Amino acid sequence: MQIPCVALINKKIKHMKKNIFIFFAILCICFNHSSLSAQLAIKSDVAKGGDTFVPDRKAGISTAFDPQAADWDISWPGVVSQYDLVYKSPPIDPMQGIPLGNGEIAALFWCEGSKIIAVVNKSDLWDDAKPDTLDNWGNENCDQYTTQRHACRIIIDFQFPVFNTLYLSGFNARLNLADASMTMEAASPFGEVGLKAFIDHKTGTLFYELNSDLNEDVPVEVAVERYGSRTFSGWYHQINRDAAIGLSGTDSFAGDESIFITQKLSSGTFAVGGTVIRDNGLEVSYSREHSRRVLTRLSGNSKKNVQFAFVVTSPGIDNPVIEVKESLFSIKQKGVEPFRKSNTEAWKTIWDRSFMDYGDDYLNNLWYLTMYYANASQGGKYPGRFNNGLWGWSHDVQNWNFYFHWNQQQLCWPLNAAGFHELVTPYLDFRFNSLPQAKKDAKKFFDSGGAFISDVTNRNGYNSPHTLLNHTPVAEIALDFWRQYQYTGDKKFLEKQALPFILEAARFFESLLVKEDDGLYHAKEGTGYEGWIRLKDGLTELVYAEVLFSTALEAVKVAGANLPEVKMWEDILGNLAPLPVVKASKGLIARGKEKLNIAQGIFKGASVSTDDIVSAGWGIKEKKWLATYFDTDDPAYSFFSEDSPAYSIRSKRNGLKLLDGIFPAVPNSPVFPSGLVGLSQKDSNLFDVMTATTLLYGTECTGWDPVPIVLARLGLSEELAVDLDNFPSRWQIYCNGWGHWGMEGLINEDAELFFKTNTVKDINSDEKLPLRMWPFRHMSMESMSVLSTAMNESLLQSYDGILRVFPAFPDDKTGRFTLHAVGGFVVSAEIREGEVQWVSVKSLLGNPCRLELPWSEAFVRSTLKKRVKTVSGEITEVKTKAGEVIVFTQEEESLRSWTVESEKPQSNEKVKYHPSGKTQLGIPRMF
């Protein structure tokens, strides 16, 4: 009898509570109607036109993501401007500078004394050498090769040292990522000055708004000048002492309303021109100072406010000054505001494509800066080079000068996942246009069919003959073409460009293999990537043979082509020699009580399933299977002496020595960038071998080493987290986020030591002399791309057609993203302390979606359907229609109880410091 009584009492209590709740709810509605309305405005009902998603505040998902719109409810521009660069002191060096660009035209701003200096570049300002085979290491032509020339320098001189530390009383500058603009303000005892600037995304016009309020009415001068120079492509080891090289062909003109500089190149003559488009009553005069400098002079008032426009043309045979005049006239008629508005809209469209929140503000900031620099330098007729992008600052100096394959490809690695497929196009166009020369060189150097591309080429596709044993670039580039097709689904691109390039690459690779008595196809003599130790059955060649022929067969099938080579390529794939595998040196992988463990290095103690590691290949001279890294006491390497050029004294953090004649990225090749091994092979022996190899060799040895991406592809989340935590302190050199490829710590000397010299050779006399390094300091963009790609791969992988969310994300972190995937999908997801909250997939092309479920079972709802579907299993496949959004959750109730929480991040107002204390973003107040 007691139990029913208790139940009855509880029932009455619940009824009373319900009545009390209703009473107070009515009071709340009556007295707080306005407050409730405000809350509902923030916490929006997702299903604004139906019952697909019904909000319920009692339970369910609370997130900033709106599944109906497939977008984040995070306010603009804060979602991006929280990663702005902030300067509290002037950038007094170009390597600290503020970079602008629209992909084709770029400008880099810094301060010197009384001046703001901007160097302007354009992607197609090429000076071509005579058509000939490229001899990039030759002495006699080292400053005569095809090279990219700078456009001009624009120098604003306020006449007083307003940027000098001695006289600064205030300074603030900002790179505004949301609209790719910059602002700069300085205060001093002499008065105040300011500058606003942007490069219009559509036209490439550089706009200035200049302000000054000085104590005296001194003229402000805006000069445009151009001094050509030697390229110094071999600045680190040789020099041509003829200082007149590069100076010819420059002239200048001044009209009543504008100024011009022209430069003759072998590809035609280009012009730079500028004019004041709003003078606000100032006296404006234009003059020609001499053949290399023109001047705009502003006077008539101590307070000055004026707007400028500057235009750069492409090289052409007609008079480019007429083209500049017409452009400037049209701009002046319209004024700056229409351009400012369209530029802002264009950049918002760019930033709307993806979203990154790795759960680490500093890494997020570097990711957004990397995407900004890509959009500012990689969208022109030619891709901005890996060295300095489009921000080469020292006249016509072009460090390395050419397109180096390994380095250049890396700039494309993170772009498809971020949705910037059009930024990959200039690189692929450049490579496709090189195909005729590549086919000639395959015949010339190898007497083979297909196409050969050297590791070093110029913009016309001429190949260096010094790296003929590195056979893999053409295969890697072919896979770049295929990746572009996988993301875009562009059949016209597949038929016109991707398939022809892939086929020529496969035809060349066919010549690299020979069927031996064992019935297997073996790789003939070659090197591991850029190395020089000669190998048979080289790892890179076997890896790319397998992936390339598989890709070629798939591309042929998709395109519906019928080729006689198909049977041969199928035979090669069925009988390809296995990848070379060897035992790790004794003691490097030790057996514990139950498991094998890495015995040294940064990942010491990590468990592995095997002590087998990949070999770089069979050393033809050494008659041994060679590994890329080895223990210094390993007797297998006793035939290398310490002074051998193949024996590197440079050690990684794991304490192993690098066999320098084998490129450091060789052991990564089965995983990335080839995509042969990944999480789809996680139950295979080769996956175990690659995991053991990667953990044993440790972290990257240079800024271009793709180890972080490999860690992500192998699902090594904790190891990747350690690597990324340390990455900025090792490879970010400059305060604007720019990185470098160089050996850890060594490149900092070039960036920081003003008096450092290098011993170089005079090419005409072989005399050795010291050369100051400071005029040749530079950044390189590879490390930024490696970091961004690793972050992408940590959050989303799709390279094999299976969508995997958070496949290498730390269990203790919270993160979220919107990224693009193979098959034409835009994927968004959120994770909180290791628990995936939801996954959204927007189908752009209507392809079937294959998702590796982050739960054992999931509930699925489409924006086109009301019925909830249940799916289970490791991988689920869902049919889609173009434009459809599909949401996956772990609980069905979450689909009905979805609350959108608006977020309003603020623009960044501070200098950011990496936790290591070794690097920073922005410059603090230093006066």
From TrEMBL:
User: What's the domain of life for this entry?
Assistant: Bacteria
GO BP, one annotated term: carbohydrate metabolic process
Which Pfam families does the annotation name?
Glyco_hydro_95_cat (PF22124)
Domain Glycosyl hydrolase family 95 catalytic stretches: 388-582
Q: Which InterPro entries match?
A: 6-hairpin_glycosidase_sf, 6hp_glycosidase-like_sf, GH95_cat, Glyco_hydro_b
Would you indicate the residue range of the signal peptide? none
Listed SUPFAM superfamilies: Six-hairpin glycosidases
Question: One GO molecular-function annotation for this sequence?
Answer: alpha-L-fucosidase activity
Query: What is the designated name of this protein?
Result: Glycosyl hydrolase family 95 catalytic domain-containing protein
User: Can you name the source organism?
Assistant: Mariniphaga sediminis
